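Hi R.,

Here's the chain you asked about this morning:
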Amino acid sequence: MNEVQEAVLVLCDMETEYAQLMTEFMNKRDDLPWSIRTYTDPELLMQSEQKVDILLVAESSYREEMKELSTGRMVILNESGIVRDEAMIHVNKYQSADNVIRELLAIYLEIVQKVFPRIGAGGSTIFIGFYSPVRRCLQTPFAMTMSQILARNKRTLYLNFEYFIGDPELQADQQTRDLADLLYFLGAEQDKFAVRLQSMVKQIGSLDYVPPMKVGQNLLSITIDEWMTFFRQLQNLGTYEYVILDLSESMQGLFEILRICERIYTIVTQDRFGSYKLSQYEQLLEMCSCEDVLEKTRKCSLPKIKQLPVAIQYYTRGELADYVWQQISELTGENKYHGNDEREN
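And here is the predicted structure, written out as tokens:
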């Protein structure tokens, strides 16, 4: 089998500080399908024999002669806000570095037909499910807390499947692509799916997540076969050690999805209505011959939570976080998760 050659992205920008910071930012990412070469002198670039797959050049550094370079695609880092050449791709230079990379990944998807480097990177993916028939039970804060703590030591992806998203920090705006857009590419080749996923992923600290569907009704139309194809795609990538599924009844084939999870966390409450709902849920699992789901389920009675932190990134502190640390130690068998030195002060 021929070895896949890594693509080369060349950045040319006479603004030395920007070029240096963007280069450092990209070099810290181990999941990008290219290596980066940087020039702050356009003349040196044009004199070089550098291999170029994507040329990313600042608007003020652009030269007409650059069109003669052997390049798969030229992208202009727009500084003025004015598009002078509609035939060229323009990316806003002054947006966040994460957004610049997302746009470049989308461009790469269209022009480079090479295997995404992280495919088959090793390690099996463990799916962890969160589901409770009891509503308003802090399921999403519980799942988000565990996801963020796991992400400190393990590559972790969080996915939310609720009809209505209760936290605006997770919600995508109208311009941001979400889980529905990613599912559109289920039939794509594995390398295209991988790059598309990477272009949509956002971060909270070291945790990756794909913004949930903006229109919850779209969840109802996804078949169980489509969900299983999606999860197989994620598993085949070998990118994540843990995929956290924050589940709801808005999904077709909920029980089948629970069956692929190695561990399921179900929050229970002590009130009469919550207990009755849990009993109905367990009876239904037995009727559907899903005893294996019950065996993998950990019923969690959360401690009294006085107040949740004001922002998601602070969920790793407080009473809920203390409880989650205990669950993670049981899940991983690693006592280090109990250590105070692993926690945030």
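One quick note: The chain is about 35% helix and 15% strand.

Cheers,
M.
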